[in-house]
């Protein structure tokens, strides 16, 4: 009988949120950028409420600007924001956060570049990667959709913002459930996804 694969279940004690390169200069180029920002803010708010470590990166901020203000406003105090030129978020500055983390919840851009390379690096290091598909995008729908296929085939878990947020609290008996529930009382905005089975 084949061994049952372990379920990569997220909870606040074993998870971190990675926010990849959601910078001002991308606003006019990324598909559904305002909706991606809104959805990412939900994850940032949940992480702050649940005291989940959060890491934010900025790709070449000198040329591409800084993290969108709406996201910065939601970050817990002292949340690090790291500059990078490497596509992956797995840079020396983020290594300390990863030491005691089993699961990484990943949002940001672009799906087929920095998010994909981050996913590969995290998987190679033995982390479970939960890619929040309604908080990840690219400049083109084709790149976005096929990046999701590549990430899933590599071993990442494709999830949604609401699924991840509710997974973190685990049930209505969680002491922070009421506070977290407010984040999802309104459904996440449409981010142009189609059923992945049709790709």
From TrEMBL:
Listed GO CC annotations: cytoplasm
Isochorismatase-like domain sequence ranges: 15-162
InterPro entries given in the database record: Isochorismatase-like_dom, Isochorismatase-like_sf, Isochorismatase_domain
Domain of life: Eukaryota
PANTHER family according to UniProt: HYDROLASE, ISOCHORISMATASE DOMAIN-CONTAINING PROTEIN 1
Family: Belongs to the isochorismatase family.
Name of the featured protein: Isochorismatase domain-containing protein 1
Encoding gene, per UniProt annotation: marb-1
